[in-house]
Write a structure and sequence with these properties.
10% of the residues lie in helices and 44% in strands. β8 and β9 form a beta hairpin. The relative contact order is 0.26. The chain is mostly beta strands.
Length: 210
């Protein structure tokens, strides 16, 4: 089965809700904005293996759990509330299993907002349109971007702490204006993550009885 990009918008995967923003051509970014973009790109490129916890909000829904990251291509969102819900990227597909409904769905990783973040080489200056960069006096900053190939599919806002730099949260805004916000309540480097974390077979496919 396939599922819409919205269902996989892991995202409460950039920052607090932002109103519709006027598009700004990337070539028109200021020197300060380009420096911020390069800093974020370098940080994300070096974030190769990590784990932590998150809180996800979408409308009135609030979910939380743990996540694991192994670039390129692999990520696992393991929900503790609601318990059992899993979203796993195995490098090729993003898979979602809801045990309460006993529903399993998947979509190619390339068709989700995770694809840019989980790529082997993170490039925020290619294939991505930067709509806005917001810089705060504290050194924190936020980047609003969208896929150049599908600019009408929505946007993502990545929010970073400035000193030291750290990804704090992201908000995915779909084509209808719906927002899913993911706050990383903890984020730390991890090594030796088990390959099984990034594998998810369809639990609804049960052996047939003769």
């Amino acid at each position: 089965m396939t599922v819409s990009r919205r269902a996989f918008a892991l995202g409460s995967a950039a920052l607090a809700a932002v109103a519709a923003l006027p598009a700004q051509a990337q070539s028109n970014l200021s020197a300060e904005d380009r420096a911020v973009l390069a800093r974020a790109q370098s940080y994300l490129q070096n974030l190769t293996s990590a784990q932590g916890s998150f809180v996800e909000t979408s409308g009135a829904q609030r979910r939380q759990g743990r996540f694991y990251l192994q670039r390129p291509g692999k990520m696992r969102f393991e929900y503790t509330d609601p318990a059992g819900l899993l979203v796993v990227s195995d490098g090729s597909n993003v898979k979602r299993y809801d045990p309460r409904l006993d529903v399993f769905r998947q979509v190619p990783l390339s068709q989700t907002p995770l694809s840019t973040f989980l790529a082997r080489t993170v490039r925020l200056d290619q294939g991505v349109r930067i709509d806005r960069i917001t810089r705060m006096d504290s050194g924190a900053f936020a980047i609003t971007a969208r896929d150049n190939r599908r600019p009408n599919d929505g946007s993502v806002v990545l929010a970073f702490a400035g000193d030291p730099i750290r990804l704090q949260e992201w908000t995915i805004i779909d084509a209808q204006g719906g927002r899913t916000r993911t706050q990383l309540t903890s984020l730390r480097p991890a090594s030796g993550l088990s390959a099984s974390l990034f594998q998810l077979r369809d639990p609804t496919r049960r052996p047939r009885r003769n």
